[in-house]
Amino acid sequence: MNWHEICAHPALKDLPFKLETDRWGHIVMSPASNRHSWLQAEIQTLLRQLASGGSAVVECSIETTAGIKVADVAWASRGFLGRHGDANPYPEAPEIVVEVLSESNTRAEMDEKKELYFARGAQEFWLCDADGGMTFHNNHAVLAQSVLVPDFPGRVTLPF
Length: 160
Prior knowledge:
The protein is an alpha+beta fold. The chain contains 4 helices and 8 strands. The chain is globular, with a radius of gyration of 15 Å.
């Protein structure tokens, strides 16, 4: 089953899980929580307010050497969108890729995803912990703040 078939399959369309594939094309599912969704939404809102020259999206599918990975949030420049539009999955990573750490994720998994996204052209990888704490990375190091969106806060706060 390829990515387009997975996305179009009626039995898979409305699952309360995040779907990705591994390097062999097997479907990998992760449960989603409301807190996770709220953090995604808040990060997307902040990106829309603070980043110019592009758009923010949630659940962004990206083709990697280890299968299709779905970033929780991504920010893509107008140039990226001009090259790829609404391709599904994207053949390269948008400039900023954000993962929200959940109970089903490990740091090793996030480190692997970070490297996969950088290999596909991401300029920054952001990790949000369960409490909203943000860490920003380029392909060489942890950053004190985002270079691409320097006003993005170090902590995302939820409205409750």
